[in-house]
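Protein 1 of 2
SEQ + STRUCT:
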Amino acid sequence: MIYSFGSLNMDLVCQTPRLPLPGETLLGTQFQALPGGKGANQAIAAARLGGEVRLVGRVGADDFGYRLMASLKVAKVPTDLVMTDVTAHTGVASIVVDETGSNHIVVVPGANGQVDESDVQRLASLLQPQDIVLMQLEIPLPTVMAAAAIAQEVGARVILDPAPAPADLPDGLLERIDILTPNQVEASQLVGFPVVDVVTAWDAAQELRQCSRQTVIVKLGVAGVVVATEAGGFHQPAIAVHAIDTVAAGDAFNGGLAVSLAEGMALLDAVQLATAAAAYAVTQRGAQDAMPERSQANTLLSAIPSAVRLPLTG
Protein backbone atom coordinates (compact mmCIF):
# COMPACT_ATOMS: atom_id res chain seq x y z
CA MET A 1 0.00 0.00 0.00
CA ILE A 2 1.07 3.57 -0.74
CA TYR A 3 -0.01 6.25 1.74
CA SER A 4 0.15 9.89 0.75
CA PHE A 5 0.26 11.92 3.97
CA GLY A 6 -0.14 15.54 3.02
CA SER A 7 -2.04 18.43 1.56
CA LEU A 8 -5.20 19.01 -0.43
CA ASN A 9 -5.62 22.41 -2.12
CA MET A 10 -7.84 24.06 -4.65
CA ASP A 11 -5.52 25.43 -7.33
CA LEU A 12 -6.55 28.86 -8.64
CA VAL A 13 -4.69 28.94 -11.94
CA CYS A 14 -4.15 32.05 -14.08
CA GLN A 15 -2.63 31.71 -17.57
CA THR A 16 -0.49 34.70 -18.63
CA PRO A 17 1.81 35.47 -21.59
CA ARG A 18 4.72 35.70 -19.13
CA LEU A 19 5.28 35.78 -15.39
CA PRO A 20 4.70 39.25 -13.86
CA LEU A 21 7.51 41.38 -12.46
CA PRO A 22 7.27 42.55 -8.82
CA GLY A 23 4.56 45.20 -8.60
CA GLU A 24 3.38 44.62 -12.18
CA THR A 25 -0.22 43.90 -13.21
CA LEU A 26 -0.72 41.67 -16.25
CA LEU A 27 -3.85 40.72 -18.14
CA GLY A 28 -4.28 36.96 -18.07
CA THR A 29 -5.69 34.79 -20.81
CA GLN A 30 -7.49 32.08 -18.83
CA PHE A 31 -8.58 31.17 -15.29
CA GLN A 32 -9.39 27.76 -13.81
CA ALA A 33 -10.11 26.42 -10.32
CA LEU A 34 -8.60 22.92 -10.31
CA PRO A 35 -8.22 20.26 -7.58
CA GLY A 36 -4.63 20.09 -6.32
CA GLY A 37 -2.37 19.99 -3.29
CA LYS A 38 0.82 17.96 -3.33
CA GLY A 39 -0.57 15.21 -1.13
CA ALA A 40 -3.66 14.72 -3.28
CA ASN A 41 -1.72 15.14 -6.53
CA GLN A 42 0.77 12.44 -5.62
CA ALA A 43 -1.99 10.11 -4.47
CA ILE A 44 -3.85 10.50 -7.76
CA ALA A 45 -0.62 10.16 -9.76
CA ALA A 46 0.08 6.84 -8.06
CA ALA A 47 -3.51 5.63 -8.46
CA ARG A 48 -3.60 6.42 -12.19
CA LEU A 49 -0.36 4.49 -12.67
CA GLY A 50 -1.91 1.42 -11.07
CA GLY A 51 -0.86 1.78 -7.45
CA GLU A 52 -2.98 0.93 -4.42
CA VAL A 53 -3.17 4.28 -2.63
CA ARG A 54 -4.79 5.95 0.38
CA LEU A 55 -4.62 9.66 1.25
CA VAL A 56 -4.41 11.07 4.78
CA GLY A 57 -5.17 14.79 5.16
CA ARG A 58 -7.79 17.47 5.78
CA VAL A 59 -10.13 19.78 3.90
CA GLY A 60 -12.40 22.54 5.15
CA ALA A 61 -16.19 22.36 5.39
CA ASP A 62 -16.67 24.42 2.22
CA ASP A 63 -17.28 24.08 -1.50
CA PHE A 64 -13.60 23.69 -2.32
CA GLY A 65 -13.39 20.80 0.15
CA TYR A 66 -16.41 19.12 -1.41
CA ARG A 67 -14.93 19.44 -4.88
CA LEU A 68 -11.59 18.02 -3.77
CA MET A 69 -13.25 14.98 -2.22
CA ALA A 70 -15.25 14.43 -5.41
CA SER A 71 -12.06 14.56 -7.49
CA LEU A 72 -10.44 11.88 -5.31
CA LYS A 73 -13.44 9.61 -5.70
CA VAL A 74 -13.33 9.95 -9.50
CA ALA A 75 -9.65 8.93 -9.39
CA LYS A 76 -10.54 5.95 -7.16
CA VAL A 77 -8.52 7.24 -4.20
CA PRO A 78 -10.34 6.38 -0.93
CA THR A 79 -11.43 9.43 1.08
CA ASP A 80 -12.11 7.77 4.44
CA LEU A 81 -8.82 9.06 5.87
CA VAL A 82 -9.42 12.65 4.69
CA MET A 83 -11.03 14.57 7.53
CA THR A 84 -13.33 17.58 7.17
CA ASP A 85 -12.09 20.31 9.54
CA VAL A 86 -14.82 22.80 10.52
CA THR A 87 -12.26 25.19 12.06
CA ALA A 88 -10.43 26.13 8.83
CA HIS A 89 -11.00 26.76 5.14
CA THR A 90 -9.75 24.34 2.51
CA GLY A 91 -6.19 25.04 1.43
CA VAL A 92 -5.71 27.09 -1.72
CA ALA A 93 -2.82 27.63 -4.13
CA SER A 94 -2.61 30.72 -6.33
CA ILE A 95 -0.73 29.72 -9.48
CA VAL A 96 0.43 31.86 -12.40
CA VAL A 97 1.56 29.89 -15.47
CA ASP A 98 3.17 31.53 -18.52
CA GLU A 99 3.27 30.42 -22.15
CA THR A 100 6.47 28.40 -21.62
CA GLY A 101 4.93 26.38 -18.78
CA SER A 102 6.94 28.13 -16.04
CA ASN A 103 5.01 29.07 -12.91
CA HIS A 104 4.85 31.06 -9.68
CA ILE A 105 2.90 29.47 -6.80
CA VAL A 106 1.65 30.84 -3.46
CA VAL A 107 0.03 28.35 -1.07
CA VAL A 108 -2.32 29.28 1.81
CA PRO A 109 -2.53 26.12 3.95
CA GLY A 110 -5.95 26.45 5.57
CA ALA A 111 -7.02 23.01 6.85
CA ASN A 112 -3.65 21.59 5.82
CA GLY A 113 -2.13 23.65 8.61
CA GLN A 114 -4.30 21.79 11.13
CA VAL A 115 -2.98 18.31 10.29
CA ASP A 116 -1.64 17.03 13.62
CA GLU A 117 -0.84 14.07 15.86
CA SER A 118 -4.36 12.66 15.54
CA ASP A 119 -3.82 12.32 11.79
CA VAL A 120 -0.44 10.69 12.44
CA GLN A 121 -2.12 8.15 14.70
CA ARG A 122 -4.68 7.29 12.00
CA LEU A 123 -1.76 6.59 9.66
CA ALA A 124 0.11 4.63 12.34
CA SER A 125 -2.84 2.31 12.93
CA LEU A 126 -2.63 1.12 9.31
CA LEU A 127 1.06 1.11 8.37
CA GLN A 128 2.82 -2.15 7.53
CA PRO A 129 6.55 -2.72 6.88
CA GLN A 130 6.03 -3.21 3.13
CA ASP A 131 4.20 0.13 2.75
CA ILE A 132 5.49 3.35 1.20
CA VAL A 133 4.66 6.78 2.65
CA LEU A 134 4.70 9.84 0.39
CA MET A 135 5.12 13.13 2.27
CA GLN A 136 5.54 16.80 1.42
CA LEU A 137 5.93 20.02 3.41
CA GLU A 138 2.53 21.69 2.85
CA ILE A 139 1.49 20.44 6.31
CA PRO A 140 3.18 21.41 9.63
CA LEU A 141 6.78 20.26 9.98
CA PRO A 142 6.28 18.74 13.45
CA THR A 143 3.55 16.55 11.96
CA VAL A 144 5.84 15.49 9.12
CA MET A 145 8.52 14.63 11.68
CA ALA A 146 6.09 12.55 13.73
CA ALA A 147 4.79 10.67 10.70
CA ALA A 148 8.31 9.95 9.47
CA ALA A 149 9.25 8.63 12.92
CA ILE A 150 6.23 6.30 12.96
CA ALA A 151 7.03 5.02 9.47
CA GLN A 152 10.66 4.40 10.44
CA GLU A 153 9.56 2.53 13.56
CA VAL A 154 7.24 0.30 11.53
CA GLY A 155 9.82 -0.23 8.77
CA ALA A 156 7.84 1.44 5.98
CA ARG A 157 9.77 3.42 3.35
CA VAL A 158 9.37 7.22 3.30
CA ILE A 159 9.68 9.42 0.21
CA LEU A 160 9.83 13.13 1.09
CA ASP A 161 9.25 15.91 -1.41
CA PRO A 162 10.67 18.92 0.51
CA ALA A 163 8.30 21.46 -1.01
CA PRO A 164 7.97 24.21 -0.12
CA ALA A 165 11.55 24.03 1.15
CA PRO A 166 12.23 25.61 4.56
CA ALA A 167 15.47 27.45 5.24
CA ASP A 168 16.54 24.45 7.32
CA LEU A 169 15.04 21.02 7.71
CA PRO A 170 14.47 20.03 11.35
CA ASP A 171 17.32 18.14 12.99
CA GLY A 172 16.84 14.42 12.57
CA LEU A 173 14.28 14.54 9.74
CA LEU A 174 16.62 13.32 7.01
CA GLU A 175 17.64 10.38 9.18
CA ARG A 176 14.04 9.19 8.99
CA ILE A 177 13.73 9.57 5.20
CA ASP A 178 14.56 6.86 2.69
CA ILE A 179 14.33 8.98 -0.47
CA LEU A 180 14.53 12.79 -0.65
CA THR A 181 13.29 14.37 -3.91
CA PRO A 182 13.91 18.15 -4.09
CA ASN A 183 13.74 20.07 -7.34
CA GLN A 184 16.68 22.31 -8.17
CA VAL A 185 15.22 25.36 -6.42
CA GLU A 186 14.51 23.40 -3.26
CA ALA A 187 17.91 21.71 -3.39
CA SER A 188 19.55 25.14 -3.68
CA GLN A 189 17.67 26.36 -0.61
CA LEU A 190 18.61 23.29 1.40
CA VAL A 191 22.34 23.30 0.61
CA GLY A 192 22.93 27.06 0.34
CA PHE A 193 24.48 27.16 -3.15
CA PRO A 194 22.91 27.38 -6.63
CA VAL A 195 21.89 24.10 -8.24
CA VAL A 196 21.82 24.84 -11.95
CA ASP A 197 23.05 21.74 -13.76
CA VAL A 198 24.00 18.07 -13.38
CA VAL A 199 27.34 18.84 -11.72
CA THR A 200 25.92 21.14 -9.05
CA ALA A 201 22.95 18.79 -8.55
CA TRP A 202 25.41 15.95 -7.87
CA ASP A 203 27.28 18.15 -5.38
CA ALA A 204 24.01 19.06 -3.65
CA ALA A 205 22.85 15.45 -3.51
CA GLN A 206 26.16 14.38 -1.99
CA GLU A 207 25.93 17.10 0.66
CA LEU A 208 22.37 16.17 1.55
CA ARG A 209 23.39 12.54 1.84
CA GLN A 210 25.98 13.43 4.48
CA CYS A 211 23.10 13.92 6.92
CA SER A 212 22.11 10.24 6.64
CA ARG A 213 22.29 7.25 4.34
CA GLN A 214 19.17 8.11 2.33
CA THR A 215 18.85 8.27 -1.45
CA VAL A 216 18.63 11.79 -2.89
CA ILE A 217 16.98 12.53 -6.24
CA VAL A 218 17.39 16.11 -7.49
CA LYS A 219 14.80 17.00 -10.14
CA LEU A 220 16.20 19.30 -12.84
CA GLY A 221 13.22 19.80 -15.16
CA VAL A 222 14.29 19.58 -18.80
CA ALA A 223 17.72 18.31 -17.68
CA GLY A 224 16.19 15.22 -16.04
CA VAL A 225 17.16 14.01 -12.56
CA VAL A 226 20.35 13.28 -10.65
CA VAL A 227 20.25 10.30 -8.28
CA ALA A 228 22.74 9.75 -5.46
CA THR A 229 22.85 6.61 -3.32
CA GLU A 230 25.31 5.02 -0.94
CA ALA A 231 26.65 2.93 -3.84
CA GLY A 232 27.06 5.83 -6.29
CA GLY A 233 24.62 7.50 -8.60
CA PHE A 234 23.42 8.36 -12.07
CA HIS A 235 21.97 11.12 -14.23
CA GLN A 236 18.71 10.24 -15.95
CA PRO A 237 18.08 12.68 -18.83
CA ALA A 238 14.52 13.85 -19.43
CA ILE A 239 12.30 12.75 -22.29
CA ALA A 240 11.95 15.44 -24.97
CA VAL A 241 8.37 16.71 -24.99
CA HIS A 242 6.59 20.02 -25.64
CA ALA A 243 5.91 21.38 -22.14
CA ILE A 244 2.87 23.59 -21.63
CA ASP A 245 2.47 23.45 -17.81
CA THR A 246 5.11 22.22 -15.33
CA VAL A 247 3.02 22.65 -12.18
CA ALA A 248 2.40 18.92 -11.59
CA ALA A 249 5.64 17.44 -12.90
CA GLY A 250 7.23 16.82 -9.50
CA ASP A 251 4.07 15.22 -8.12
CA ALA A 252 3.77 12.95 -11.15
CA PHE A 253 7.41 11.93 -10.65
CA ASN A 254 6.94 11.10 -6.96
CA GLY A 255 3.75 9.16 -7.62
CA GLY A 256 5.47 7.18 -10.34
CA LEU A 257 8.48 6.51 -8.13
CA ALA A 258 6.29 5.18 -5.30
CA VAL A 259 4.32 2.87 -7.60
CA SER A 260 7.48 1.50 -9.23
CA LEU A 261 9.18 0.79 -5.92
CA ALA A 262 6.00 -0.76 -4.49
CA GLU A 263 6.04 -3.12 -7.48
CA GLY A 264 9.60 -4.14 -6.61
CA MET A 265 11.40 -2.36 -9.45
CA ALA A 266 15.11 -1.55 -9.19
CA LEU A 267 15.85 2.12 -8.52
CA LEU A 268 16.94 2.91 -12.10
CA ASP A 269 13.78 1.38 -13.57
CA ALA A 270 11.66 3.17 -10.98
CA VAL A 271 13.29 6.52 -11.80
CA GLN A 272 12.72 5.96 -15.50
CA LEU A 273 9.01 5.25 -15.09
CA ALA A 274 8.73 8.30 -12.80
CA THR A 275 10.52 10.39 -15.45
CA ALA A 276 8.04 9.22 -18.08
CA ALA A 277 5.11 10.11 -15.81
CA ALA A 278 6.53 13.61 -15.26
CA ALA A 279 7.14 14.06 -19.00
CA TYR A 280 3.51 13.29 -19.74
CA ALA A 281 2.27 15.62 -17.01
CA VAL A 282 4.04 18.69 -18.44
CA THR A 283 2.23 18.20 -21.77
CA GLN A 284 -1.13 18.72 -20.03
CA ARG A 285 -2.66 21.66 -18.17
CA GLY A 286 -3.53 21.55 -14.49
CA ALA A 287 -2.36 19.19 -11.77
CA GLN A 288 -4.55 16.16 -11.16
CA ASP A 289 -5.96 16.13 -14.68
CA ALA A 290 -2.38 15.99 -16.00
CA MET A 291 -1.51 12.70 -14.31
CA PRO A 292 -1.00 9.87 -16.81
CA GLU A 293 -2.50 6.42 -16.96
CA ARG A 294 0.07 3.62 -16.96
CA SER A 295 -0.28 3.07 -20.71
CA GLN A 296 0.44 6.75 -21.40
CA ALA A 297 3.57 6.69 -19.24
CA ASN A 298 4.71 3.45 -20.88
CA THR A 299 4.40 4.99 -24.35
CA LEU A 300 6.82 7.76 -23.36
CA LEU A 301 9.04 5.31 -21.51
CA SER A 302 9.94 3.68 -24.81
CA ALA A 303 11.71 6.91 -25.82
CA ILE A 304 13.64 7.54 -22.60
CA PRO A 305 17.39 8.29 -22.98
CA SER A 306 19.91 6.03 -21.31
CA ALA A 307 21.11 6.96 -17.83
CA VAL A 308 24.69 8.09 -17.26
CA ARG A 309 26.62 6.79 -14.25
CA LEU A 310 27.94 9.39 -11.77
CA PRO A 311 30.42 10.62 -10.76
CA LEU A 312 31.96 11.03 -14.20
CA THR A 313 35.61 10.02 -14.43
CA GLY A 314 38.36 10.45 -17.03
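Protein 2 of 2
SEQ + STRUCT:
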Amino acid sequence: MSDAIEWGADILVLPGFHFAASVYTAANLYPDTMFVVLDTMTDPGPTPSNVVTILYAEEQSGFLAGYAVVMDGFRDLGFMGGIAVPAVVRFGHGFVEGAEFAAQELGLAPGEVTISYHYVGAFAPSPEAQTMAYSWYASGTEIIFVAAGRVWDSVRTAAEAGDERWVVGVDVDQSGDSPVFMTSAMKALGVSVYDMLTDFVNDSFRGGSDLHFDATVNGIGLPMANSHFREFTQSQYDAIFAQLVDGSIVVSTVLPAEGASTDPHTMIDFDLVTVNFIS
Protein backbone atom coordinates (compact mmCIF):
# COMPACT_ATOMS: atom_id res chain seq x y z
CA MET A 1 0.00 0.00 0.00
CA SER A 2 2.80 2.41 0.86
CA ASP A 3 4.50 1.71 -2.47
CA ALA A 4 1.29 2.35 -4.39
CA ILE A 5 0.68 5.62 -2.59
CA GLU A 6 4.26 6.77 -3.08
CA TRP A 7 3.91 5.95 -6.79
CA GLY A 8 0.92 8.33 -6.92
CA ALA A 9 -2.19 6.30 -6.19
CA ASP A 10 -5.04 8.45 -4.84
CA ILE A 11 -7.37 5.55 -4.07
CA LEU A 12 -6.71 1.89 -3.29
CA VAL A 13 -9.12 -1.06 -3.58
CA LEU A 14 -8.22 -3.83 -1.14
CA PRO A 15 -9.92 -7.25 -1.34
CA GLY A 16 -10.15 -9.53 1.65
CA PHE A 17 -9.92 -9.91 5.39
CA HIS A 18 -6.11 -9.79 5.38
CA PHE A 19 -6.36 -5.99 4.98
CA ALA A 20 -8.54 -5.40 8.06
CA ALA A 21 -5.72 -4.24 10.35
CA SER A 22 -3.23 -2.89 7.82
CA VAL A 23 -5.70 -0.56 6.14
CA TYR A 24 -6.54 0.99 9.50
CA THR A 25 -2.86 1.82 9.97
CA ALA A 26 -2.41 3.00 6.38
CA ALA A 27 -5.50 5.21 6.51
CA ASN A 28 -4.06 7.10 9.47
CA LEU A 29 -0.59 7.35 7.91
CA TYR A 30 -2.01 8.63 4.60
CA PRO A 31 -5.10 10.72 5.39
CA ASP A 32 -5.24 12.19 1.86
CA THR A 33 -5.52 8.76 0.24
CA MET A 34 -8.89 7.01 -0.06
CA PHE A 35 -9.32 3.28 0.57
CA VAL A 36 -12.06 0.81 -0.41
CA VAL A 37 -11.94 -2.47 1.52
CA LEU A 38 -13.97 -5.48 0.40
CA ASP A 39 -15.25 -8.35 2.54
CA THR A 40 -14.08 -7.01 5.88
CA MET A 41 -14.35 -4.24 8.45
CA THR A 42 -11.33 -2.29 9.65
CA ASP A 43 -9.63 -3.59 12.76
CA PRO A 44 -9.92 -1.82 15.11
CA GLY A 45 -12.88 0.43 14.36
CA PRO A 46 -14.55 2.78 13.82
CA THR A 47 -13.93 3.05 10.09
CA PRO A 48 -11.58 5.98 9.35
CA SER A 49 -12.98 8.95 7.43
CA ASN A 50 -10.97 8.10 4.31
CA VAL A 51 -12.08 4.44 4.19
CA VAL A 52 -15.20 2.73 2.85
CA THR A 53 -15.76 -0.89 3.83
CA ILE A 54 -18.05 -3.12 1.80
CA LEU A 55 -19.61 -6.34 3.02
CA TYR A 56 -21.85 -8.60 0.99
CA ALA A 57 -24.80 -10.79 1.92
CA GLU A 58 -23.00 -14.06 1.21
CA GLU A 59 -25.69 -15.87 3.14
CA GLN A 60 -28.27 -14.74 0.56
CA SER A 61 -26.08 -15.73 -2.36
CA GLY A 62 -25.40 -19.14 -0.80
CA PHE A 63 -29.12 -19.51 -0.08
CA LEU A 64 -29.99 -18.94 -3.73
CA ALA A 65 -27.43 -21.53 -4.82
CA GLY A 66 -28.68 -24.15 -2.35
CA TYR A 67 -32.29 -23.46 -3.24
CA ALA A 68 -31.66 -23.59 -6.98
CA VAL A 69 -29.74 -26.86 -7.08
CA VAL A 70 -32.31 -28.70 -4.97
CA MET A 71 -35.16 -27.28 -7.05
CA ASP A 72 -33.19 -28.44 -10.11
CA GLY A 73 -33.26 -32.02 -8.85
CA PHE A 74 -29.96 -32.44 -7.03
CA ARG A 75 -30.16 -34.38 -3.78
CA ASP A 76 -26.57 -35.27 -2.82
CA LEU A 77 -24.69 -32.01 -2.34
CA GLY A 78 -21.32 -30.89 -1.07
CA PHE A 79 -19.97 -27.67 0.44
CA MET A 80 -16.22 -27.13 0.45
CA GLY A 81 -15.21 -23.91 2.18
CA GLY A 82 -11.73 -22.43 2.50
CA ILE A 83 -10.79 -20.94 5.86
CA ALA A 84 -13.82 -20.54 8.12
CA VAL A 85 -13.81 -16.73 8.06
CA PRO A 86 -17.19 -14.96 8.31
CA ALA A 87 -17.76 -14.59 4.55
CA VAL A 88 -17.12 -18.27 3.91
CA VAL A 89 -19.24 -19.39 6.86
CA ARG A 90 -22.11 -17.22 5.62
CA PHE A 91 -21.87 -18.80 2.17
CA GLY A 92 -22.00 -22.30 3.66
CA HIS A 93 -24.77 -21.69 6.15
CA GLY A 94 -26.83 -19.93 3.49
CA PHE A 95 -26.34 -22.90 1.17
CA VAL A 96 -27.76 -25.24 3.80
CA GLU A 97 -30.71 -22.92 4.47
CA GLY A 98 -31.50 -22.65 0.76
CA ALA A 99 -31.45 -26.41 0.35
CA GLU A 100 -33.72 -26.76 3.39
CA PHE A 101 -36.17 -24.18 2.04
CA ALA A 102 -36.36 -25.93 -1.32
CA ALA A 103 -36.86 -29.30 0.35
CA GLN A 104 -39.79 -27.83 2.27
CA GLU A 105 -41.34 -26.38 -0.88
CA LEU A 106 -40.96 -29.71 -2.71
CA GLY A 107 -42.34 -31.72 0.20
CA LEU A 108 -39.25 -33.92 0.39
CA ALA A 109 -38.76 -36.42 3.18
CA PRO A 110 -36.20 -35.88 5.96
CA GLY A 111 -32.79 -37.02 4.79
CA GLU A 112 -33.70 -37.01 1.11
CA VAL A 113 -31.24 -34.13 0.63
CA THR A 114 -27.75 -34.61 2.08
CA ILE A 115 -24.81 -32.20 2.24
CA SER A 116 -21.19 -33.14 2.88
CA TYR A 117 -19.72 -30.05 4.58
CA HIS A 118 -16.03 -29.29 5.08
CA TYR A 119 -13.54 -26.43 5.47
CA VAL A 120 -10.24 -27.27 3.79
CA GLY A 121 -8.28 -24.63 5.74
CA ALA A 122 -6.83 -22.86 2.70
CA PHE A 123 -7.72 -20.88 -0.41
CA ALA A 124 -5.24 -22.56 -2.75
CA PRO A 125 -5.63 -25.75 -4.81
CA SER A 126 -4.05 -28.85 -3.35
CA PRO A 127 -3.80 -32.60 -3.97
CA GLU A 128 -5.69 -33.14 -0.70
CA ALA A 129 -8.66 -31.04 -1.82
CA GLN A 130 -8.68 -32.76 -5.20
CA THR A 131 -8.60 -36.19 -3.55
CA MET A 132 -11.49 -35.26 -1.26
CA ALA A 133 -13.53 -34.00 -4.20
CA TYR A 134 -12.80 -37.23 -6.12
CA SER A 135 -13.94 -39.21 -3.08
CA TRP A 136 -17.15 -37.23 -2.70
CA TYR A 137 -18.07 -37.59 -6.35
CA ALA A 138 -17.21 -41.29 -6.33
CA SER A 139 -19.49 -41.83 -3.33
CA GLY A 140 -22.45 -40.16 -5.00
CA THR A 141 -22.11 -36.40 -4.49
CA GLU A 142 -23.62 -34.75 -7.54
CA ILE A 143 -22.58 -31.13 -7.08
CA ILE A 144 -20.09 -29.29 -4.85
CA PHE A 145 -20.30 -25.62 -3.87
CA VAL A 146 -16.72 -24.36 -3.55
CA ALA A 147 -16.34 -21.19 -1.46
CA ALA A 148 -12.58 -21.49 -1.15
CA GLY A 149 -10.73 -19.30 -3.61
CA ARG A 150 -8.59 -21.29 -6.03
CA VAL A 151 -9.59 -24.58 -4.39
CA TRP A 152 -12.22 -24.58 -7.14
CA ASP A 153 -9.42 -25.64 -9.50
CA SER A 154 -8.94 -28.87 -7.53
CA VAL A 155 -12.68 -29.56 -7.43
CA ARG A 156 -13.12 -28.72 -11.11
CA THR A 157 -10.41 -31.24 -12.02
CA ALA A 158 -12.22 -33.93 -10.04
CA ALA A 159 -15.54 -33.00 -11.64
CA GLU A 160 -14.13 -33.07 -15.16
CA ALA A 161 -12.88 -36.63 -14.59
CA GLY A 162 -16.38 -38.09 -14.70
CA ASP A 163 -19.86 -37.62 -16.13
CA GLU A 164 -22.61 -35.56 -14.48
CA ARG A 165 -20.31 -34.10 -11.86
CA TRP A 166 -21.07 -30.46 -11.21
CA VAL A 167 -19.61 -27.47 -9.38
CA VAL A 168 -21.10 -24.25 -7.97
CA GLY A 169 -18.68 -21.36 -8.31
CA VAL A 170 -18.31 -18.43 -5.94
CA ASP A 171 -18.02 -14.63 -5.90
CA VAL A 172 -18.11 -14.18 -9.70
CA ASP A 173 -19.67 -15.96 -12.67
CA GLN A 174 -17.31 -18.90 -13.23
CA SER A 175 -19.13 -20.36 -16.23
CA GLY A 176 -16.17 -19.48 -18.43
CA ASP A 177 -13.76 -21.56 -16.35
CA SER A 178 -15.28 -24.93 -17.22
CA PRO A 179 -18.54 -26.41 -18.50
CA VAL A 180 -18.89 -28.27 -15.17
CA PHE A 181 -19.93 -25.05 -13.39
CA MET A 182 -23.67 -25.40 -12.99
CA THR A 183 -23.99 -21.87 -11.59
CA SER A 184 -22.16 -19.45 -9.29
CA ALA A 185 -23.07 -17.79 -5.98
CA MET A 186 -22.07 -14.27 -6.93
CA LYS A 187 -21.32 -11.02 -5.16
CA ALA A 188 -21.53 -7.77 -7.12
CA LEU A 189 -17.83 -7.05 -6.74
CA GLY A 190 -17.54 -5.14 -9.99
CA VAL A 191 -20.65 -3.09 -9.37
CA SER A 192 -19.66 -2.06 -5.86
CA VAL A 193 -16.08 -1.16 -6.81
CA TYR A 194 -17.29 0.79 -9.84
CA ASP A 195 -19.72 2.70 -7.64
CA MET A 196 -16.99 3.62 -5.16
CA LEU A 197 -14.58 4.77 -7.90
CA THR A 198 -17.38 6.80 -9.47
CA ASP A 199 -18.02 8.47 -6.12
CA PHE A 200 -14.33 9.24 -5.83
CA VAL A 201 -14.14 10.81 -9.30
CA ASN A 202 -17.26 12.87 -8.54
CA ASP A 203 -15.86 14.09 -5.20
CA SER A 204 -18.60 12.27 -3.31
CA PHE A 205 -16.55 9.50 -1.72
CA ARG A 206 -18.43 8.09 1.26
CA GLY A 207 -15.48 7.90 3.61
CA GLY A 208 -16.22 6.51 7.06
CA SER A 209 -19.07 4.36 5.72
CA ASP A 210 -19.67 0.64 6.15
CA LEU A 211 -21.79 -0.48 3.21
CA HIS A 212 -23.73 -3.71 2.78
CA PHE A 213 -24.57 -5.09 -0.64
CA ASP A 214 -27.50 -7.51 -0.52
CA ALA A 215 -30.48 -8.50 -2.65
CA THR A 216 -32.20 -5.14 -2.16
CA VAL A 217 -29.46 -3.44 -4.21
CA ASN A 218 -28.74 -6.42 -6.51
CA GLY A 219 -25.57 -6.97 -4.52
CA ILE A 220 -25.75 -10.76 -4.84
CA GLY A 221 -27.26 -13.32 -7.18
CA LEU A 222 -26.90 -16.21 -9.60
CA PRO A 223 -25.86 -15.75 -13.26
CA MET A 224 -29.03 -17.25 -14.69
CA ALA A 225 -28.12 -16.52 -18.32
CA ASN A 226 -24.95 -18.59 -17.99
CA SER A 227 -26.18 -21.31 -15.63
CA HIS A 228 -26.88 -24.84 -16.82
CA PHE A 229 -29.98 -25.66 -14.81
CA ARG A 230 -32.10 -28.48 -16.17
CA GLU A 231 -35.37 -27.68 -14.42
CA PHE A 232 -34.90 -24.51 -12.34
CA THR A 233 -36.33 -21.60 -14.32
CA GLN A 234 -35.83 -17.85 -14.52
CA SER A 235 -39.34 -17.28 -13.17
CA GLN A 236 -38.60 -19.45 -10.14
CA TYR A 237 -35.39 -17.52 -9.58
CA ASP A 238 -37.17 -14.18 -9.87
CA ALA A 239 -39.78 -15.30 -7.37
CA ILE A 240 -37.32 -16.46 -4.71
CA PHE A 241 -35.11 -13.40 -5.25
CA ALA A 242 -38.12 -11.12 -4.76
CA GLN A 243 -38.79 -12.77 -1.39
CA LEU A 244 -35.25 -11.92 -0.29
CA VAL A 245 -35.78 -8.34 -1.40
CA ASP A 246 -39.12 -7.82 0.36
CA GLY A 247 -37.96 -9.58 3.52
CA SER A 248 -40.44 -12.44 3.43
CA ILE A 249 -37.39 -14.73 3.50
CA VAL A 250 -34.70 -13.83 6.01
CA VAL A 251 -31.52 -15.88 5.86
CA SER A 252 -29.68 -16.22 9.15
CA THR A 253 -26.59 -14.05 9.60
CA VAL A 254 -25.74 -15.52 13.00
CA LEU A 255 -22.08 -16.55 13.09
CA PRO A 256 -20.18 -18.64 15.61
CA ALA A 257 -18.20 -16.87 18.29
CA GLU A 258 -14.47 -16.72 17.75
CA GLY A 259 -13.01 -20.16 18.33
CA ALA A 260 -16.41 -21.87 18.30
CA SER A 261 -17.39 -24.66 15.94
CA THR A 262 -18.42 -23.65 12.43
CA ASP A 263 -20.61 -26.74 12.15
CA PRO A 264 -23.95 -25.45 10.74
CA HIS A 265 -25.77 -27.68 13.25
CA THR A 266 -24.71 -25.28 16.00
CA MET A 267 -25.96 -22.11 14.29
CA ILE A 268 -29.04 -22.78 12.14
CA ASP A 269 -32.15 -24.93 12.26
CA PHE A 270 -32.91 -27.54 9.59
CA ASP A 271 -35.20 -30.53 9.76
CA LEU A 272 -35.17 -32.06 6.27
CA VAL A 273 -31.59 -31.74 5.07
CA THR A 274 -28.97 -34.08 6.51
CA VAL A 275 -25.60 -32.32 6.91
CA ASN A 276 -22.51 -34.45 7.37
CA PHE A 277 -20.02 -32.04 8.92
CA ILE A 278 -16.44 -33.17 8.36
CA SER A 279 -14.04 -31.45 10.76
